[in-house]
C-alpha cells in the first residue's frame, strides 16, 4: 500500500496539495469504511457556500448535518475560537473555567432547566441523559426502575447505549448484545406509550422532530400529552434536542413550540456552530442525582468549545435572529409546497422551521440529491424516499430561491425519467 508521503517525510505538505480524486482514493485506503461517503472532498466554506477540492462551489443545504447553524466560518465564532486558542485551550475538569460557566449560564437563562453537563457529541449527551435518568429513578423509586421508552424511527446516536435507545434495528444489528433497559413505541401515539409503561419504566425519551428517522414532526398535542403522562406516572421526560435545538426549528429549543418543558434535554450538533460540543441539561432536583465521581468527560466543556458555543448562542439569541429564521423557513416551505403542486413525485413536505423533509412517492431521493449536487446544491437523502433540507439558519431568501431553482431542474429531469 502506498501512502501519501513517507512516515517521516513531507506528508503534511503533500496532504494539503491532494486533488479531489487523490483525497477520495486515500480515504478508501486509510479510513475505516464506516460511512457511505459521496465522491466529493470539501476544502473551504463561507456562509451558505462550500467549495470542493476541484474549486467548484455549492450551496450547502446540509450544513454539516445541522451543525453549521450559522453557516460556515461565522466571523464571530472564528474570532472567539482564535482568541480563546491563544489563552487557554484545555485544562481538564479538575479545575474551574470561566467559558464553561458563561455558556452554562446562557443555556440556563434561556431554558427552563437548571444545570448543565458538558460533553463532546450528541451520543455522549444522550448517554449522560440515560445515566442521569437511571440514577435519579433508582434513588427516587428504587433499584428496579431503569427502563427508558423511546420511539420507533428515533435516532439517538451510535454508542452502544445510544443505539440501544434508537428505535431502528438497522443501527443495532451486528452489535449485540446491547445494553438492556429500552423499549420502543410508535411515535405520535400516546395510547401506545401509556400501554408500554411498566414496573421498570423510569423515563420517556423523544425527539420533538425525528431528524434522521425521516423528519417526523411531533403532533401538536403529542408532546403535551407525553408531558402529562410522565407527570401522572412519575416518569422523567427526556427530550433529545441534539438536532432540533439551538434555533434549528425557529425557536431556541423545539419544545417551545409545544408549550412544555423536559426534565432532561440533550444538545449537540449546532451548539458549537461547527466546533464539537454536546450538553445535557436537567432540572435541579433531577441533576441532584449526580454526585461528584458519577460522570465525567475529559474534553467535556473544554475552553475552546465553550468559547465557540457561547459566540454561537449569543448570535442566535440576538433580537430578531430567530424571527428571521422563521420567516425565511416559511418562504422555503412555501416554495417547496409549490414544487409539490407541480411535481406529483413529491408526496409530502413536512418539518419545523429550518428542519424540512420532502417525502417522494418513489425511490428517487438519491438520484435527486445527485442531480442537485451536480448543479451546485448539497442536500441530504434519507433512505430512498426522503430529501432532508438543513440550510444554515443564516440562509437568505435569495439563497433559498437559488436552491429551489436547482431542485426544480433536478425534479423535472427525474420526473422525465
Ligand atoms: C445526530 C444526533 C445524535 C447523535 O449525535 P452525534 O454527535 O453524532 O453523536 C443524537 N440524537 C439526535 C436527535 C441526533 O440528531
Strands, count: 17
Bound molecules: pyridoxal-5'-phosphate
Helical amount among residues, as a percent range?
Answer: 25-40%
CATH class annotation of the largest domain:
Alpha Beta
Integer-rounded radius of gyration:
22 Å
Q: What is the CATH superfamily classification of the largest domain? A: Type I PLP-dependent aspartate aminotransferase-like (Major domain)
Instruction: Please identify the structural class as seen in this structure.
Output: alpha/beta
Shape-level CATH architecture of the largest domain: 3-Layer(aba) Sandwich
The overall average pLDDT, rounded, is: 95
Tally of domains: 2
N-to-C CA distance: 42 Å
As laid out across the biggest beta sheet, the strand order is 4-12-11-10-7-5-6
Instruction: Output the CATH topology of the largest domain.
Output: Aspartate Aminotransferase, domain 2
Sketch the major β-sheet: 7 strands, mixed
Strand content: 15-25%
Shape: globular
Characterization of this structure:
This protein has 417 residues and is an alpha/beta fold. The protein has two domains: 2-67 and 321-416, Alpha-Beta Complex (Aspartate Aminotransferase, domain 1); 75-316, Aspartate Aminotransferase, domain 2, CATH 3.40.640. It is 38% helix and 18% strand. The strands form four sheets. The protein has a seven-stranded mixed β-sheet with strand order 4-12-11-10-7-5-6, with helices on both faces. Helix 5 (98-109) runs parallel beside helix 11 and helix 13 crosses helix 14. The protein is globular and about 60 Å long. It starts with 10 loop residues before the first helix and ends with a helix. Mean pLDDT is 95; it is low at 1-15. Bound molecules: pyridoxal-5'-phosphate. Pyridoxal-5'-phosphate is lined by residues 121-123, 126, 155-157, 207, 211-212, 240, 242-243, 268-269. Homodimer. Its EC number is 2.6.1.11. It is an enzyme of class 2 (transferase). It is found in: Cytoplasm. Its main location: cytoplasm.
